[in-house]
Amino acid sequence: MPTAAKLVASIAFALLAYFTSELVKPLLDEGTPTKWFSEGNTLIGLICGWKIMGPRGGEGTRAAIGVGLTTSAAMTAVAIFLHASIEMVKLSMRKSYDGPVEAVAAVFEISFEHALLIANPTILGTLAIGGIFCGFISNWAGRNWR
């Protein structure tokens, strides 16, 4: 059932994902294709905001902080895993792996590399502060627009 908190949370986390994606782009290796990078992450933020933060909007300040941080972390984890999976498929099309087990293991290795890439204070701070802020906005919408 659509609610104001779900709508506001999905839009807020989509904006957070887009903004963070734009901060990550300069950290990527030169030549890395980023045509749909921000847009894909925005969609992930939209879905995570709707499914994770949205239903908990209006439950108070503690819930807003906790679920906002949880949503931000989940959004980041899903984005890292999705991009690592896409990279693994591209590498497997070039016959880089000997078998399917090696390809699946590579997803986790690539995910770890991507996590290390974004593990800088600017990105993590943006995700943390932005997650709390988006949680507050969703909480406000859930309380005021029932």
From TrEMBL:
Keywords recorded for this protein, A-Z: Membrane, Transmembrane, Transmembrane helix
Biological source species: Pseudoruegeria aquimaris
Regions crossing the membrane: 65-86, 123-142
Transmembrane helix in keyword set: yes
Protein name: Tellurite resistance protein TrgA
Keyword field contains Transmembrane: yes
